[in-house]
């Protein structure tokens, strides 16, 4: 079991930046894949960015070049740096981790990101 707490969301103008943080209640070394998902009203939850234990990253096409995912194993943290934000980035953003041996995934409660002028 692990508890995940997201933070860093808020209201930002188009073109602005936010940094989301995901704090895990225990060591994230046991988790192979860590990612950020988002869900906008009336839409399905979608993968935004993922990082695996070796450091490889992948991004949704819609955020490539604007978002950067990173992890800090020592601090049990996962981050999502979001630059050049657009109104279509508005969503509830969730942190997700997948245990490397069991394949069980865990979710946080989400943090709201609203991009509006």
Overall morphology: globular
| First-last Cα distance | 40 Å
Helical stretch count? 0
Order of helix and strand elements from N to C terminus: EEEEEEEEEEE
For the biggest sheet, the summary is: 7 strands, mixed
- Rounded to the nearest angstrom, the radius of gyration is 13 Å
Topology of this structure?
Layout: E1 4-7, E2 10-12, E3 18-24, E4 31-39, E5 46-52, E6 57-59, E7 67-72, E8 77-82, E9 91-99, E10 105-107, E11 111-115
Parallel strand pairs: 2-11
Antiparallel strand pairs: 1-3, 3-8, 4-5, 4-9, 5-6, 7-8, 9-10, 9-11
Features:
117 residues, mainly beta, 4-stranded antiparallel sheet, 53% strand
Task: Give a written overview of the molecule.
Helices cover 0% and strands 53% of the residues. The chain is built from no helices and eleven strands. The mean pLDDT is 95.
Short description:
The protein has strands at residues 4-7, 10-12, 18-24, 31-39, 46-52, 57-59, 67-72, 77-82, 91-99, 105-107, 111-115.
């Amino acid at each position: 079991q692990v508890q995940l707490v997201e933070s860093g969301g808020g209201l930002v103008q188009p073109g602005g930046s936010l940094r989301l943080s995901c704090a895990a209640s225990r060591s994230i070394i046991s988790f192979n894949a860590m990612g950020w998902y988002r869900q906008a009203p009336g839409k399905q939850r979608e993968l935004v960015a993922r990082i695996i234990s070796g450091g490889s990253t992948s991004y949704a096409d819609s955020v490539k070049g604007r978002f950067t995912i990173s992890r800090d194993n020592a601090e049990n943290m996962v981050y999502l740096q979001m630059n050049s934000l657009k109104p279509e980035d508005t969503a509830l953003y969730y942190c997700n981790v997948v245990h490397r041996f069991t394949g069980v995934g865990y979710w946080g409660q989400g943090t709201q990101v609203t991009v509006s002028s």
